[in-house]
Design brief:
Blueprint (H helix, E strand, L loop, with lengths): L12 E2 L1 H9 L4 E4 L3 H5 L7 E2 L2 H8 L3 H8 L11 E4 L4 H12 L5 E4 L2 H9 L1
Parallel strand pairs: 1-5, 2-3, 2-4, 4-5
Helix pairs in contact: 3-5
Length: 122
């Protein structure tokens, strides 16, 4: 382990109860990294769909370009709860790791993913 590596303030994984309370209090931003087709068939309310294949370029865009493309404000590096999810959890994890590597320290993965959400909330 490299020294001087500060642990992130929040765990990289978010559970459904925590996700629920973050969403209820408006403190989380949710990103659906599944394909457009998957997201069109149903997603978690309030989620912004950015397929994992375009996430890297999206997160490196100028804010105005991001806004124009996704009709949403680009997340900031210091934003605290940037929660990524997919269908089963794997792409969400990739997305979170990618966002963290780009400096988004608050990137997190909703491990239960859409499958769990659908089961419990759908």
């Amino acid at each position: 382990m490299a020294g001087g590596c500060r642990a992130p303030s929040s765990a990289p994984t978010v559970s459904l109860p925590e996700l629920r309370s973050l969403l209820a209090s408006g403190r989380a931003r949710l990103f659906d990294v599944r394909s457009r087709e998957e997201a069109a068939a149903g997603t978690i309310p309030g989620a912004l769909n950015i397929p994992v294949s375009e996430l890297e370029s999206a997160l490196q865009m100028e804010p105005a370009a991001f806004q124009a493309l996704y009709s949403a404000e680009k997340p900031k590096l210091e934003d605290e709860h940037l929660i990524f999810f997919c269908q089963m959890g794997k792409r969400g994890l990739q997305a979170m790791q990618l966002a963290r590597s780009l400096g988004y320290t608050g990137a997190r993965n909703y491990a239960g993913a859409y499958r769990e959400w659908l089961e419990k909330e759908g």
